[in-house]
Design goal:
The protein is of the alpha/beta class. The protein is built from 14 helices and twelve strands. Strand 4 and strand 5 form a beta hairpin. It is globular and about 70 Å long.
Length: about 350
């Protein structure tokens, strides 16, 4: 009589043979793949402040939008996630729909950046890029897209300088850092961040990555590598896998002082909700975000739970507020097939109605 699991000696032997064939095929596949590159779209440097560079993406056709779109990504990962490869590129989708897209690359922090503050990142670097584009196009304000931590920077900047942001888009952006399902916030809430930074200086990228991986250890440390066996005979699939792995582990160290301020003001004090965020000597009041806002969040996001993002609606001062709920996770919102269809189209349609 067969049991409910239905494991038989024949089945085990067949599975062992299948895995053996996949592993043997992998020896050939890995030689064929070699090193993987990233970035599907040509880009050109248009502005720089030290390690921080503003790039313009060069599309196959001229932009039709009258207002440039500046993308601010998180500090903890590299921004090429939005332009990972030809068939996984939010940037390509935006360009194809007529947007003129720019991205701020924060670079790799080293010991000389130990004392950079949130004011440096928000006012000096993000603000410098905004001012460059305003001058270049002769416009009083531009469109701003903030992603994850870059979204908190964009919100802070828009609250401090509402006259310089025409339309604001936030994507998987944490706003309420004290929701019950925010695992990162629970971890960070009792962290002695002063001791942490004084001991380490800059925060090592490997330490940050270890924290993110431990949020879903089975899926991110075991399941995906077991699943790799199934694609070892497919060079294209292996190349895609390795490109994603390269992005995951290509993480900059975090400038110590900015990290301290971010953990304290956002993760520990829940500053947006409490109204206690201070950048430099200026208080950030989200009620001053009076421009149109589109807030995009992912329904299965384990890093920025939907409630953490949806809290934005009750805090901004604009009457033109819209939300887009994406069926996927924190990474899928950039690289999944569904994202390539839905996200650029939603952003461009929303902007077109306001440009």
């Amino acid at each position: 009589m067969a049991g409910p699991v239905r494991i038989t000696p024949e089945g085990i032997a067949e599975e062992a043979l299948r895995v053996q064939r996949k592993l043997l095929a992998g020896l050939t596949t890995l030689r064929e793949v070699g090193d993987v590159d990233y970035g599907a779209t040509p880009r050109e440097e248009v502005w720089r402040d030290g390690k921080v560079v503003l790039y313009r993406f060069v599309g196959a056709q001229a932009a039709t939008s009258r207002t440039p779109l500046l993308v601010a990504y998180a500090l903890v990962n590299r921004p090429y996630m939005i332009d990972l490869q030809a068939d996984r590129s939010i940037v390509a989708g935006l360009l194809a729909r007529g947007q003129d897209v720019y991205v701020l690359d924060w670079g790799y922090a080293d010991r000389s950046d130990r004392f950079l503050t949130l004011e440096d990142y928000i006012e000096r670097f993000l603000g410098g890029a905004v001012d460059h584009l305003r001058r270049r196009f002769g416009l009083p304000a531009i469109n701003l897209l903030g992603i994850c931590q870059g979204g908190t920077f964009a919100l802070s900047y828009a609250a401090l300088h509402p006259e310089r942001v025409r339309n604001l888009i936030t994507m998987v952006t944490p706003v309420d850092f004290h929701t019950d399902d925010n695992m990162l916030a629970h971890w960070a809430r009792d962290l002695d961040v002063d001791l942490f930074v004084e001991t380490l200086g800059n925060v090592p990228a490997d330490m940050m990555n270890a924290c993110y991986l431990m949020m879903k250890p089975w899926r991110l440390l075991v399941h995906k590598y077991v699943g790799l066996v199934d694609i070892l005979d497919d060079p294209k699939a292996v190349e895609d896998f390795l490109r994603m792995e390269k992005w995951i582990f290509d993480s900059p160290d975090q400038a110590g002082e900015a990290f301290r301020q971010f953990v304290r003001q956002f993760y520990q004090d829940n500053g947006f909700v409490a109204g206690s965020v201070v950048i430099g000597e200026r208080a950030v009041d989200l009620a001053q975000v009076t421009m149109p806002v589109l807030n995009i969040y992912a329904e299965q996001d384990h890093m920025v739970p939907p409630d953490a993002s949806r809290a934005l609606q009750g805090l901004v001062g604009t009457e033109d507020y819209a939300e887009l709920s994406f069926r996927g996770g924190h990474i899928g919102i950039y690289v999944s097939g569904r994202a390539q269809v839905q996200v650029p189209a939603a952003i461009c349609d929303w902007l077109a109605q306001r440009d």
